[in-house]
Amino acid sequence: MARRKKIYEGKAKTLYEGPEPGTIVQYFKDDATAFNAEKKDVIEGKGVLNNLLSEYFMLGLTNIGVPNHFLKRLNMREQLVRSCEIIPLEVIVRNYAAGSMSKRLGIEEGTQLPRPIVEYCYKDDKLGDPLVTEEHIAAFGWASQQDMDDILSLALRVNDFLSGVMYGVGIRLVDFKIEVGRVFEGDYQRLVVADEISPDSCRLWDIETGQKLDKDVFRRDLGSLTDAYTEVAKRLGVMPKTSTPASKPTLIN
């Protein structure tokens, strides 16, 4: 049987045509990038860990009624997801100041924010995913006001879920980003959490020590990214404490 048709290849994932209409196979690569792909490397086992962790978080969201595109995991590096029309926004939820927020506003990293702050970036690698306001989003027609209300609700529900899950295993959810897609069912449209939820898209700090367990380990040369992600997976029970992630990719035919 011929290999499935490639639809899209991004920095961390490759998308293939799914086995049934309306489905996509999402393949997690070992590639790591930072600073809009100015820094690159291949981190053995990273794709396996992100696949397992994203499955864990998406299933958790499904269990509490938060719609998302996840259908099932196919193997160690691939999952089957619903095809959806991605809204061209990165939706960022911040619980503590870190990264670009600290630089923009001069707030010390780790400062707890008075409430979760939701920011939006326009998805365009060539432009560096610039920060945009709801005025930009409305003016350029990227999403309707109803969409924005639904996106905000989704983002805050994901934040409540992830914050609780992480706190339970001694990890502080500093911030995270999600993408949202439109799924069409006849004339009806609904919004779902899409892409992935993994340490690639979250800032995760150990509550006791402040140790970083996310992609900042790679950005700032703080040690082994695989070890950091493995620690998150072990605490959540996604991997047995004696396991190490498989390194070789497995593509389905």
From TrEMBL:
<dbReference type="Pfam" id="PF01259">
    <property type="entry name" value="SAICAR_synt"/>
</dbReference>
<feature type="domain" description="SAICAR synthetase/ADE2 N-terminal">
    <location>
        <begin position="6"/>
        <end position="235"/>
    </location>
</feature>
<dbReference type="InterPro" id="IPR050089">
    <property type="entry name" value="SAICAR_synthetase"/>
</dbReference>
<keyword id="KW-0067">ATP-binding</keyword>
<keyword id="KW-0436">Ligase</keyword>
<protein>
    <recommendedName>
        <fullName>Phosphoribosylaminoimidazole-succinocarboxamide synthase</fullName>
        <ecNumber>6.3.2.6</ecNumber>
    </recommendedName>
</protein>
<comment type="similarity">
    <text>Belongs to the SAICAR synthetase family.</text>
</comment>
<dbReference type="InterPro" id="IPR033934">
    <property type="entry name" value="SAICAR_synt_PurC"/>
</dbReference>
<dbReference type="InterPro" id="IPR001636">
    <property type="entry name" value="SAICAR_synth"/>
</dbReference>
<keyword id="KW-0547">Nucleotide-binding</keyword>
<comment type="pathway">
    <text>Purine metabolism; IMP biosynthesis via de novo pathway; 5-amino-1-(5-phospho-D-ribosyl)imidazole-4-carboxamide from 5-amino-1-(5-phospho-D-ribosyl)imidazole-4-carboxylate: step 1/2.</text>
</comment>
<dbReference type="GO" id="GO:0004639">
    <property type="term" value="F:phosphoribosylaminoimidazolesuccinocarboxamide synthase activity"/>
</dbReference>
<dbReference type="InterPro" id="IPR028923">
    <property type="entry name" value="SAICAR_synt/ADE2_N"/>
</dbReference>
<dbReference type="InterPro" id="IPR018236">
    <property type="entry name" value="SAICAR_synthetase_CS"/>
</dbReference>
<keyword id="KW-0658">Purine biosynthesis</keyword>
